[in-house]
Amino acid sequence: MKLYPLQFQPILKDRIWGGTKLKTYLNKPITSEITGESWEISTVENDVSIIVNGFFEGKSLNELINEFPEQVLGIEVFKRFGKQFPLLFKYLDAREDLSIQVHPNDELAAKRHNSFGKTEMWYVMQADDDARLIVGFKEKSSPEEYIQHLENKTLLNILDTKKVKKGDVFFLETGTVHAIGAGTVIAEIQQTSDITYRLYDFDRVDANGNVRELHVDLALEAINYETVEAQIKYSKIENKPNEVVDCQYFTTNFIPLNGKIDCNKNQNSFTVYMCVDGDFELILNKEKYNYKKGDTVLIPAFLTDFQLNGNASVLEIYIS
């Protein structure tokens, strides 16, 4: 049986800060008023994606990788990660501000949690007029200053905020203090990790009156106290991959698709396409696969020659 472009059942997560835009804007099958995340491709423990199309419908991504590791992951990805799928893909709807948080690097995450770290990238798909993100410190800080402002509930005073609009991109290396602000829909690409240290949650309580756990002490060693420039400027030349992020964990290109382009891959890495606007078709061996805004598709590494055709904004992600 030949491999083909794979789609997965979205794994929907209710969050205290979530809303309904994943349904109204991205057509996800949410049933609550506080759905914050749609995990599109995941092998996080207890949240493993299930295939919803074609011959392998009903199989998990892990099962398919176990059966065809090199063909799905790619020759070089398999050499580096074994049968682990190294990335996690999500869409997020922030009706309210997310907590202020930080993620540990690979070394710290391995030592404490037997996990990868969490380097991530945000692509802003939609932003209300006053939407903002928190990314890093305004000026160089220190553990002492951080603790002092945390205790005085003035942490926001020393953090940098960025007004955002559709198409903005932020690359968040581990250690960067950050928060997604209210009124944004985000496409997120990250290492396979669910390790988050929550620094401050605006003293919110859940439906039962409970505050969420903070991880103040764990965060002390994880935080980068230097200033960072996380916003990425990138070109948007039609019908070609425009490099946005190229790091050791993933490469992301932005493709403004207006017509048809040929894609020729090697067999070293899988490719993922996230349709962040419009719609397109993927043509492989004369078969056509159709995608619209909010769809995510995994192209196994051994599928090397195909075409994209349509009018869409597409994120192309692989490991180089």
TrEMBL record:
- GO process annotations (BP): carbohydrate metabolic process
Instruction: Report the InterPro entries cross-referenced here.
Output: Carb_Metab_Reg_Kinase/Isom, Man6P_isomerase_Firm_short, MPI_cupin_dom, PMI_typeI_cat, RmlC-like_jellyroll, RmlC_Cupin_sf
Where the record annotates domain Phosphomannose isomerase type I catalytic, the positions are 7-114
So which cofactors does this thing need? Zn(2+)
* Active site: residue positions: R198
Where does this protein have coiled-coil stretches?
A: none
Residues that bind Zn(2+)? H103, E120, H178
UniProt keywords, alphabetically = Isomerase, Metal-binding, Zinc
Q: How cofactor binds (record note)?
A: Binds 1 zinc ion per subunit.
A GO molecular function assigned to this protein is: zinc ion binding
Q: What is this protein called?
A: Phosphohexomutase
